[in-house]
Prior knowledge:
Layout (H helix, E strand, L loop, with lengths): L1 H26 L4 H4 L13 H12 L21 H31 L7 H20 L7 H9 L5 H9 L1 H16 L3 H9 L4
Helix pairs in contact: 1-3, 1-4, 1-5, 4-5, 4-6, 5-9
Amino acid sequence: MITVISIVILIFSVIIHEVSHGYMADLLGDPTARMQGRLTLNPIAHIDPVGSIIVPLITSLFGFTFGWAKPVIYNPYNLKNKRQGEFLIAIAGPLSNIVLALIFGTIIRFVAAGQSTMTPFIEVASYIVLINIVLAVFNLIPIPPLDGSKLLFAWLPQQYGRMRILMETYAPMFILIVVFFLWQVISPIIFPIFKLFTGINF
Length: 202
């Protein structure tokens, strides 16, 4: 049951993440996401059969839930300020996850006050907080195709453009490295952030 709940939470969290990218792009002058029907919370518009269904089901068998939605596409040439626009669009996704985690973390603080046991509501809310913290931290890692790489290259000098193209070419390999190696270094910060947001231990 918890596996199903965590997968549902993951799907809607990554959808909100992608919609946030699209809304920011639209605000900055690029209507691509809106024209493609991506500024909606309807899962049909965002679900990637592999990233949103197969991968979460498989990873949940190993004790964690991982996945993604179809990435929102934007046209940088429609942006008023290409470099600043890329930065704002990239940061919108992780920020949406942090806001979700903060909202439900605050709710947990109020609901859990004075309670000695974890109610079903607090348990579900805790998964929402945890999954959104993981999504935010994971996406801020500065390697392609994650948002962190877009944040990094948005401020690096233009001469690093070739390096970016090369790194994006091998993006799938970098993701595997993050999931199986680098994530073990980064993951210990997840639970301290969770406690900071909720006031409880997961």
